[in-house]
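Usage

Read records sequentially. Each one opens with the input sequence:
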Amino acid sequence: MRRGDEVTEEVLSRPGRYRRVAENLEVKEVIVGEGERRRRYAVCFNPLEAKRQKSPREERLNELEAELASLSDLAKVSHTKRVCALRTSARYGRLLKETKRGLAIDRQAITELERFDGKFVVHSNDDTLTAEDMALGYSSSGWKKPGGR
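and closes with the structure output:
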């Protein structure tokens, strides 16, 4: 979902309401295109998974804030190995931006990451399937339908 392709640009940005289809699953249907070239997507949201994904990111931000605070002591030296290590870090690099005063946390990047919390997208060209069917059929953990098992 984070590649910046049709799913990111068209599907996730499309407004609409989610319908609750299971205890921890909400779904909305998005159709892109027209005629034979149209594509049907089910955008699925799991609120518990969203909370689970948010927690490690908050811990990482706290670690990063502490690291940036320790770098402020070295503010007179604009370019250190620690700054380079943070910028190129797979863990922290995408959460940082370069400012006139040095490294800072990129709040816009964090907001963009939060946009994906608890979401997954399923697509189908079978018009007989509802968005609920696509989501429940995709799920490997066996979502419980309301009133079901």
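Summary fields computed downstream for this record:
- The longest strand covers residues 25-32.
- The chain is about 35% helix and 20% strand.
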